[in-house]
């Protein structure tokens, strides 16, 4: 497949996935009030489910892999949620027998993401001379 077409599939899928994430998450957070951001949780779990479903579909059946892989999996779901990619990669490590790798991946992504977000917030707060989440 030509690289320009691959880039086009990923770009269009990514734009649609980001828009879908924003609209659906905002709508769910407006409709469902919980102690956690339900919209984000729903997006992450739905994206993970869909990525797993499409991965298995593309591995087990003859389908148009290019559309599924580049437009939907990498483009749409990649922009819809990066959590789905993280989940799939972790499960692949487990299926391949790498429990250690999977655990390192989970801890690194979850704790690392929290630490990176904390550092980003506090760097700007330090520069701006403010405290807490602004």
From TrEMBL:
It comes from Caldanaerovirga acetigignens. This is Fluoride-specific ion channel FluC. The keyword Lipid metabolism does not apply. InterPro entries: FluC. GO terms for molecular function: fluoride channel activity; metal ion binding. The keyword Ribosomal protein does not apply. Na(+) is not transported, but it plays an essential structural role and its presence is essential for fluoride channel function. One of its GO terms (biological process) is cellular detoxification of fluoride. It catalyses: fluoride(in) = fluoride(out). It is found in: Cell membrane. It is a multi-pass membrane protein. The lineage of its organism: Bacteria, Bacillati, Bacillota, Clostridia, Thermosediminibacterales. It comes from the Bacteria. HAMAP family: FluC (MF_00454). Na(+) binds at residues 78, 81. GO terms for cellular component: plasma membrane. Keywords: Cell membrane, Ion channel, Ion transport, Membrane, Metal-binding, Sodium, Transmembrane, Transmembrane helix, Transport. Signal peptide: none annotated. The chain crosses the membrane at residues 6-24, 36-58, 70-95, 102-128. Belongs to the fluoride channel Fluc/FEX (TC 1.A.43) family. Fluoride-specific ion channel. Important for reducing fluoride concentration in the cell, thus reducing its toxicity.
